[in-house]
């Protein structure tokens, strides 16, 4: 009987570990551009008013996309939905693929390697779910340091 339970448990465990309902997948340039618009609108509303944004596919493997904002700054969007959408941004300057600092080149190459290593083994990022969750009202309604306040009131009334 115990052996049968062990076998059933192992079978269920193997099925659970082997099953991945959401496979990571590449995102298109259009999807990345929508994420960039959303980012500028939420994080930097003053930059969102810029009429045009230039898209640059900086990665040969489409591991990331870079969008310049005409009002200044750029945002780096991941090319795979298993990764946090915004990999980096700045509110000043612009992205020039010809004149990148060595540190940024290394960072972008690292992004390419990491995103390529993901393959189809990771679940899609649940950022949309996390940001849609508003949370609940805090249940703690008591004031902190009640003892301190009650002691000082007693001393002054005596």
From TrEMBL:
InterPro entries documented for this protein: Papain-like_cys_pep_sf, Spi_Prtas-inh, Streptopain_sf
Annotated signal sequence range: none
Residue intervals of the Spi protease inhibitor domain: 24-115
The protein's name: Spi protease inhibitor domain-containing protein
Species of the source: Segatella copri
């Amino acid at each position: 009987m115990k052996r049968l339970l062990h076998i059933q448990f192992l079978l269920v465990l193997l099925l659970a570990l082997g099953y991945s309902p959401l496979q990571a997948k590449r995102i298109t340039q259009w999807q990345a551009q929508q994420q960039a618009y959303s980012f500028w609108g939420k994080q930097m509303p003053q930059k969102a008013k810029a009429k045009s944004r230039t898209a640059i596919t900086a990665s040969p493997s489409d591991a990331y996309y870079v969008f310049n904002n005409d009002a200044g700054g750029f945002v780096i969007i991941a090319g795979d939905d298993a990764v946090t959408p915004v990999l980096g941004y700045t509110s000043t300057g612009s992205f020039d693929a010809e004149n990148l600092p060595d540190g940024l080149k290394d960072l972008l190459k690292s992004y390419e390697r990491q995103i390529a290593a993901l393959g189809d083994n990771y679940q899609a990022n649940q950022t949309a779910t996390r940001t849609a969750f508003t949370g609940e009202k805090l249940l703690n309604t008591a004031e902190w340091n009640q003892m301190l306040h009650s002691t000082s009131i007693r001393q002054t009334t005596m």
